[in-house]
Amino acid sequence: MAATDRPGVKDMGPTSATGNKRPATLQRGAGFTLIELLITLVIIALIAAIAVPSLRSSPAADLRNSAQMVAAALRQTRIDAMSSGRSLALLVDTEAHTLQQQDRDNPRQLPDDIALVLTTAEQEMLGPDRGGIRFWPDGSATGGRVTLARDQLTLRVDVEWLTGRVRISALDNE
Fold it and tell me: Residue 22's CB: how many other CB atoms inside 10 A?
């Protein structure tokens, strides 16, 4: 009696060389054609060409991130001065592009392609390219400014001397 003659048994199609039955759907050319694969690769390449440039950061974003890093370092120095009960300065090296809290060994590096200018009290200058902005235990500061510039963009991080408040502002370049 053949498999198709028995009730409830389906015919799986022709037998392979090993005697195993294969489903009938695999007999037709299952898979993708070369044209389908090429079209898929072209679509993926177009999506990558559009997406990858948008993932890179822009000069404006780099400048903004650097200004936020300076502001965060200044705010942390103020908090540390208030909690320790002694004056502390954030040292800015405009030549080496580093920020370092006084008495700490972990300088923060800023990008080399960002121009830095430090404006601070004369007694806080440690050289032509190095100086600090000092915070006192009551939260006040010597005051000062770190100006960051890149291409046609300029941002300024200001420290108010009376309150020690730190804020970032943009300058209009004309």
Answer: 12
